[in-house]
Amino acid sequence: MEVTERAVAIADRVEAFVRDVVFPYERDPRARGHHGPADELVMEMRDKARAAGVLTPHIMPDGSHLTQRETAIVLIRSGLSPLGPLACNTMAPDEGNMYLLGHEGSAEQKARFLKPLVEGRARSAFLMTEPATEGGAGSDPSMMKTTCRQDGNHWVVNGRKRFITGYQGAAIGIVMAKSDDGACMFLIDLPDPAIRIDAVPDTIDSSMPGGHATLTIRDLRIPADQMLGQSGEGFKYAQIRLSPARLSHCMRWLGSCIRAQEIAIDYACKREAFGKTLIDHEGVGFMLAENKILIQQCALMIDWCAGVLDSGSLGTVESSMAKVSVSEALMKIADNCVQVMGGTGVTGDTIVEQVFREVRAFRIYDGPTEVHKWSLAKKIKRDWVKGQQA
After folding, report:
1. Per-residue model confidence (pLDDT) at position 162
2. Long-range Cβ contacts of 376-381 (<8 Å, 24+ apart)
3. For the CA atoms of the chain, what is the radius of gyration?
């Protein structure tokens, strides 16, 4: 993966911090909640990251961002622990929200909403997904049911949201709703009495604070100057946010799978069975060899997709290809690590078990694998039709 000297230097500092400071926190009881690590723990780690100079390392002091290819190596290193992205402030949904606000927010909006996120002093939530079982849009913003209407110098929002990651405990929200013009986005302070938490379900993953809440929004009044851009532009902003966000998930969880591979190798080289170490049994050694191949393939796919984004393209097709190929490969890597370690692999004695759970959930984040395959199939058909017409 080709990277600049500045990215390598930042990534090296991030890796040293994660290995030396964050790894020990993996045993902290505050890191093991059903709805993610406790905010107290997150802020404690961020204080140490701030002191070490690795807090929000992908955003420069002048507010500029690393390129996507540079970001890749930094986020991969931060992901060596499931707690690393939280400590370094490179975790979803904050990382994606910072990306969106940095690109589309006004000066006033950046000062009020972006600054505390970059400083790691606040968490945020992205209120887009709706309850599909109630006729809502699910994760398809083009089918948005949540409405917004203008009332003087305010907008009034009503609707339901589901699987809103990090909402509980968040200080900043980005709300997506539909006006007569189309989709809209608003920036809000949280909590707000007009938004009720209906449930925070227990889920298979547990890496992001605040869980994945179900919400009811009733007559939420938002000042007009807190709209992001113009009425009807929300779908465009959703694409801006979600294209790199999908790729960032690939980066972070690749880091975790690299760590799981390290743990599995150490186990296989020390554990003896049937007269020799596990790694000397072909069934085990071949799984670790397969993992090494898949890790390299994931790194190459991420680098290619990041390069497309850096070229100025939104990279919707490319991000879908990366999301599918990388998420499926990471699932195989994590599964192999569990299998190599046998009973130990399904216990909390190491992070391997958690990585397996997190990567399984990752195959659903930002639209499941099948949605991306469907999108790619439509592109294949469009290209075929154009070819026939040529």
Report:
1. 95
2. 376/317, 376/320, 376/321, 376/324, 379/317
3. 21
Q: How far is CA 7 from the centre of its chain?
A: 20
DSSP states of 42-53: HHHHHHHHHHHT
Q: Which residues pair with 178 in a beta bridge?
A: 147, 183
DSSP string, 198-229: EE----S---STT-EEEEEEEEEEEEGGGBSS
Q: Buried (b) or exposed (e) across 45-56, using 16+ Cβ within 10 A?
A: bbeebbebebbb
- Angstrom distance (rounded) from CA 291 to CA 333: 5
β-bridge pairing 212-223 and 147-151 = unpaired
Q: What is the reported pTM?
A: 0.94
Strands 212-223 and 272-273: unpaired
Q: What percent of the chain has pLDDT over 90?
A: 82
In one letter, which amino acid is 101?
Answer: L
Is 158:186 a contact under the CB 8 Å cutoff?
Answer: no
By C-alpha distance, which of 151, 148, 192, 145 is closest to 173? 192
CA dihedral 185, 203, 319, 351 (to 10 degrees): 130
Measured in whole angstroms, how far is the alpha carbon of residue 156 from the centre of its chain? 29
| In the predicted structure, residue 116 carries a pLDDT above the cut 90 | yes
Angle at 357 between CA 168 and CA 271, to 5 degrees: 140
Please tell me the chain's helix, strand, coil percentages from 3-state DSSP, rounded to the nearest 5. Answer: 55, 15, 30
Taking alpha carbons only, the member of 248, 194, 219, 223 closest to residue 109 is 223
Structural domains in the chain? 5-91 (no CATH), 124-231 (2.40.110.10), 235-389 (1.20.140.10)
| DSSP alpha helix (H) spans, 81-167 | 84-88, 94-104, 107-109, 115-118
**How far is residue 357's CA from residue 107's CA, in Å, rounded to a whole number?**
40
Cα–Cα distance between 43 and 29 in angstroms, integer? 15
Confidence tier at 139 by pLDDT (50, 70, 90): low
Q: How far is CA 5 from CA 2, 15, 77, 249, in A?
A: 10, 15, 15, 23
